TrEMBL record:
Protein name, UniProt field: Protein ECERIFERUM 7
Taxonomy, superkingdom: Eukaryota
Organism field: Medicago truncatula
InterPro entries linked: ExoRNase_PH_dom1 (IPR001247), ExoRNase_PH_dom2 (IPR015847), ExoRNase_PH_dom2_sf (IPR036345), Exosome_comp_Rrp42_subfam (IPR050590), PNPase/RNase_PH_dom_sf (IPR027408), Ribosomal_Su5_D2-typ_SF (IPR020568), Rrp45 (IPR033100)
Similarity-based family: Belongs to the RNase PH family.
MF (Gene Ontology): exonuclease activity; mRNA 3'-UTR AU-rich region binding
Source species taxonomy: Eukaryota, Viridiplantae, Streptophyta, Embryophyta, Tracheophyta
Record localization: Cytoplasm; Nucleus
Cellular component terms per the entry's GO annotation: cytoplasmic exosome (RNase complex); nuclear exosome (RNase complex)
Annotated ranges, domain Exoribonuclease phosphorolytic: 36-166, 197-263
GN (gene name): 25483959
GO annotation, biological process: exonucleolytic trimming to generate mature 3'-end of 5.8S rRNA from tricistronic rRNA transcript (SSU-rRNA, 5.8S rRNA, LSU-rRNA); nuclear mRNA surveillance; nuclear polyadenylation-dependent rRNA catabolic process; rRNA catabolic process; TRAMP-dependent tRNA surveillance pathway; U1 snRNA 3'-end processing; U4 snRNA 3'-end processing; U5 snRNA 3'-end processing
């Protein structure tokens, strides 16, 4: 993503040299090892399908919503999935207000590619009435603080919010059986999305020294690195997508090494997402029981 290189002016020449020399000594400014991830935190909002992820000092929020629309003519029995990103100047002064820039669009494309090409979401289950009505799922991603590696943080936020999203249940009625009835949550329990697997993005940073590779680059490391690669794969090790911006070449052995590391990290992140979602669902059920209990006591 070119946004990473737009911030280079903030670092002096001495600062850049210090970061590079530290990396050559297998030290990072924040004290991590070269292949160590920052602390990951996943929180959920009150509404279904809202999540906030903090990766180190990077913070991203994601919201999932749905509406009934006409399907595409070439896919009459499939719902749709779309991703929109917002880069606020409050998250980073270099982000410009207004319409999404190239970096925001590219971020959305990376996440979309991992979800869509791996068919992680069962879009056929989103069909309500063939060739007439399907659910259109929309993911809105908001960057709250940019401290580096927005791709991984935004991807995790999208997966977490998708995992907790619930859509209204529909049924067909009327004399011809073609009238769609959308049931409110008070009448019928909303339905979760059918998610086959979680495509997790893992990003590596490369530097002028081809043997120097870091996992989860920070904001300052992004300003110094000469290239990057994001590998999206699931816990089974299936590669869903690979994104390598820039023209710098990468040796095959380095790519294979990164794939092995990404597999281990993706499995670890998947476990953390699943655990956080399960804990959230349990808390939600407890709150639901308490509300019903209060209704009876009143």
């Amino acid at each position: 993503m070119e946004q990473r290189y737009a911030n280079c002016w903030r670092l002096t020449v001495n600062e850049k040299k210090f970061i590079e020399s530290s990396l050559l000594s297998e030290l990072r400014v924040d004290g991590r090892g070269s292949l160590e991830y920052r602390k990951l935190s996943i929180k959920f909002g009150k509404d279904n399908g809202s999540a906030e992820v903090q990766l180190g000092e990077t913070r991203v929020m994601s919201f999932v919503s749905a509406e009934l629309v006409q399907p595409y003519k070439d896919r009459p029995n499939e719902g749709t999935l779309s991703i929109f990103t917002e880069f606020s100047p409050m998250a980073d002064p270099s982000f410009e207000p207004g319409r999404p820039g190239e970096s925001a669009v590219e971020l959305g494309r990376i996440i979309d590619r991992g979800l869509r090409e791996s068919r992680a979401i069962d879009t056929e289950s989103l069909c309500v009435l063939s060739a007439k009505l399907v659910w259109a799922i929309r993911i809105d991603i908001h960057i709250l603080d940019n401290a580096g590696n927005l791709v991984d943080a935004a991807n995790i936020a999208a997966l977490a919010s998708l995992s907790t999203f619930r859509r209204s249940e529909c049924s067909l009625g009327g004399e011809d059986g073609q009238q769609v009835v959308v049931h409110p949550p008070e009448v019928r329990e909303p339905l979760p999305l059918i998610i086959h697997h979680l495509p997790v993005a893992v990003t590596f940073g490369f530097f002028s020294n081809e043997n120097l590779v870091v996992l989860d680059p920070t904001y300052h490391e992004e300003a110094v690195m000469t290239g990057s690669m994001t590998v999206t794969l699931n816990a089974n090790g299936d590669v869903c997508a690979i994104q390598k911006p820039g023209r710098q070449g990468i040796f095959q052995r380095v790519i294979m090494h990164c794939l092995k590391l990404a597999h281990v990290k993706a499995a670890d992140i998947t476990t953390k997402i699943i655990d956080a979602v399960e804990k959230h669902n349990i808390q939600r059920e407890v709150q639901k029981v308490k509300r019903h209990s209060n209704c009876f006591t009143d």
